[in-house]
Amino acid sequence: MEIFITAIGTDSGKSIVSSILTEALDADYWKPVQAGYPTDTDTVHSLLYTPKEKLPEAYLLEHPMSPHAAAALENRVIQLEDIQLPKYTKEHLVVEGAGGIMVPLNDENMVIDIPQKLGLGVVLVSNIYLGNINHTLLSINELKRRGLPLVGIVFNGDNNEATKSIILKHANCPELFHLPTLEKVDKESIYAFANQLKENLRTKLFQNA
């Protein structure tokens, strides 16, 4: 299984969610477009209890900003055709996007064009805050418009059942898990969280892949 992790916005917790999914699925992790340091690849691998090979980014950019702008500062243009799945990975692959689904890669393409090109199912991270229902449903509608399979939603932050209920009613996919604010974020806490939900998570993903 190959899944693409995206979100309703920036700083939504995608890397922590990616770490949990990578650990729970015993998957490889890949960040195709990285803008700024430290890299999300380094961050995710620092949180993995089980050491894995680091897969190189298709584009590694210096400045922490939107990929299209970071590339322009280096006189580069991100080309969607250059983003190809790694040839040698484990049975499962977790692919993490940059920012939210409509973050631009260049003048034409957005982050969401990556899973569309590569044929990947999408996991949407929705961090809970005032206004997240609107942002989440807009993201879901764009995924539906493009015909992209939404295999699950991960909610992040303080629990709000009313918020989750209305989003899931329109999403037509399961809640994979709810990520509360962790007291400590390290490889031990990520491993414990991933191990706790491993079987249930695999069942939900494979049923909706």
UniProtKB/TrEMBL annotation:
Keywords: ATP-binding, Biotin biosynthesis, Cytoplasm, Ligase, Magnesium, Metal-binding, Nucleotide-binding. Its main location: cytoplasm. Pfam families: AAA_26. It catalyses: (7R,8S)-7,8-diammoniononanoate + CO2 + ATP = (4R,5S)-dethiobiotin + ADP + phosphate + 3 H(+); (7R,8S)-8-amino-7-(carboxyamino)nonanoate + ATP = (4R,5S)-dethiobiotin + ADP + phosphate + H(+). Its cofactor is Mg(2+). The keyword Metal-binding applies. GO terms for molecular function: ATP binding; dethiobiotin synthase activity; magnesium ion binding. InterPro entries: DTB_synth_BioD (IPR004472), P-loop_NTPase (IPR027417). Pathway: Cofactor biosynthesis; biotin biosynthesis; biotin from 7,8-diaminononanoate: step 1/2. GO terms for cellular component: cytosol. CDD domains: DTBS (cd03109). Gene3D superfamilies: P-loop containing nucleotide triphosphate hydrolases. It is an enzyme of class 6 (ligase). ATP binds at D11, S12, G13, K14, S15, I16, D42, E96, G97, A98, G99, P180, T181, L182. It comes from the Bacteria. It is found in: Cytoplasm. The active site is at K31. Its EC number is 6.3.3.3. Homodimer. Catalyzes a mechanistically unusual reaction, the ATP-dependent insertion of CO2 between the N7 and N8 nitrogen atoms of 7,8-diaminopelargonic acid (DAPA, also called 7,8-diammoniononanoate) to form a ureido ring. Belongs to the dethiobiotin synthetase family. This is ATP-dependent dethiobiotin synthetase BioD. It comes from Flammeovirga pacifica.
